[in-house]
Design goal:
It is a single chain. The chain has 264 residues and is an alpha+beta fold. It folds into two domains: 68 residues, Orthogonal Bundle (Arc Repressor Mutant, subunit A), CATH 1.10.10; 173 residues, GAF domain (Beta-Lactamase, 2-Layer Sandwich), CATH 3.30.450. It contains nine helices and nine strands. Strands 6-5-4-9-8-7 form a six-stranded antiparallel beta sheet, sandwiched between helices. A three-stranded antiparallel beta sheet has the order 1-3-2. A hairpin with a 3-residue loop joins strand 4 and strand 5. The radius of gyration is 19 Å and the shape is globular.
Length: 264
């Protein structure tokens, strides 16, 4: 898929996000929220209306999501069977590490945490299902993008600036790609105070039969417990557990091809 086509899809996705509340949204507000000119927003949201993904109130000049999303929502619910199959592995991993464990699925411009099991330790990192995780600043995001092609990574990162989450976030593209290459070589990703001050995280991908990431699992905790040796141990454990999950999904026929874009 060309960069222009990916950009158009990403903007359309951003428009859908901007209407996610379900309320009517004025065109000027849509344009402001996704950072484009009103003419561009008008053309994009008009295309969404044409294909039934959005509704238009001509009298108010406003737009909202259509009921067609209920159909897609039901399809996603069926895919969550995969999450149910993975959950016992997450519980085991949480018990083994005594740290917070998260399951992330890939989206267009970032990852989405769909399951989170919190550590029972007094000093811990909290995460919540439904939150988003940047590809460049989080271990679970890096685990999902590291196995993609260089061209695909570039296309995703070109969609917007690599915003710093903390003073330690890697925002230089060359340095980030070096980190991703290293992640792929060793089999697991990490970050240390790059997404949140005082916290660190290690993650590994769940791969399909073709070696492509369909999800990632991360273990997160306070930096005081995530020194280099501990992180290497968690990385090795995650690689082992993700291989077990991948095998279980394939046996159950629950390893879908979750592509971020065609042609990768």
């Amino acid at each position: 898929m060309t960069e222009a086509r990916v950009q158009s899809v990403a903007r359309a996705a951003a428009l859908l996000d901007a209407m996610a509340s379900g309320d009517w949204v004025a065109l000027r507000d849509l344009a402001r929220r996704i950072g484009v000119a009103k003419t561009t927003a008008f053309n994009l949201v008009g295309a969404l209306v044409d294909v039934g993904l959005a509704e238009h109130d001509p009298a108010k000049g406003c737009y909202r999501l259509s009921l067609l999303h209920l159909v897609y929502g039901r399809a996603v619910e069926r895919r969550m069977d995969m999450v149910e199959l993975i959950r016992p592995f997450l519980v085991r991993l949480c018990a083994e590490t005594r740290e917070t464990v998260n399951l992330a699925l890939p989206s267009t411009t970032d990852a989405i945490i769909v399951e989170s099991l919190e550590s029972n330790q007094t000093l811990r990192v909290s995460a919540y299902a439904g939150t988003r995780a940047d590809y460049h600043a989080t271990a679970c995001g890096r685990a999902l993008i590291a196995w993609r092609s260089d061209a695909f990574r570039q296309t995703i990162f070109d969609l917007g600036p690599l915003r710093p989450k903390t003073a330690h976030t890697t925002t230089d593209l060359a340095a980030l790609n070096a980190l991703l290459d290293d992640t792929r070589r060793r089999g697991w990703a990490s970050e240390f105070e790059e997404n949140e001050t005082g916290s660190a995280c290690v993650a590994a991908p769940i791969l399909d039969a073709e070696g492509q990431p369909i999800a990632s699992v991360s273990v997160a905790g306070p930096t005081s417990r995530f020194q280099p040796e501990a992180m290497r141990g968690l990385g090795a454990l995650l690689v082992q557990r993700m291989a077990e999950i991948s095998a279980a999904l394939q046996r159950a026929g629950q390893a879908p091809k979750l592509r971020l874009a065609a042609g990768d």
